[in-house]
Design goal:
This protein has 78 residues and is mainly alpha-helical. It has one domain. Helix content is 82%, strand content 0%. It is built from three helices and no strands. The chain is flat. The N and C termini lie far apart (45 Å). InterPro entries: DUF2626.
């Protein structure tokens, strides 16, 4: 399970680099931070249950943040 967090770190790094190349600096910074956290967690060697709980916590926060942003921060398309 720890290896999967390193894989998540790799893919978030790829997304961050593409965003950086596309001049989306805030988006890239968000994904660079996620990359650092995923790599750090990937090398801490927690139990599988701990990794699953952390992943589900991450997913809940990500979906809540995405939902908040799309409902309250984005304008209604005209």
């Amino acid at each position: 399970m720890a290896r999967m967090f390193r894989v998540l770190g790799f893919w978030t790094l790829v997304i961050a680099l593409m965003a950086f190349a596309g001049d989306m600096y805030e988006f890239a910074l968000l994904f660079f931070m996620q990359t650092a956290v995923f790599f750090l967690l990937g090398y801490l060697n927690f139990t599988e249950k701990t990794y699953l709980l952390m992943f589900w916590g991450y997913m809940v926060l990500a979906f809540l943040g995405f939902t908040y942003w799309t409902v309250f921060e984005m304008g209604i398309p005209v």
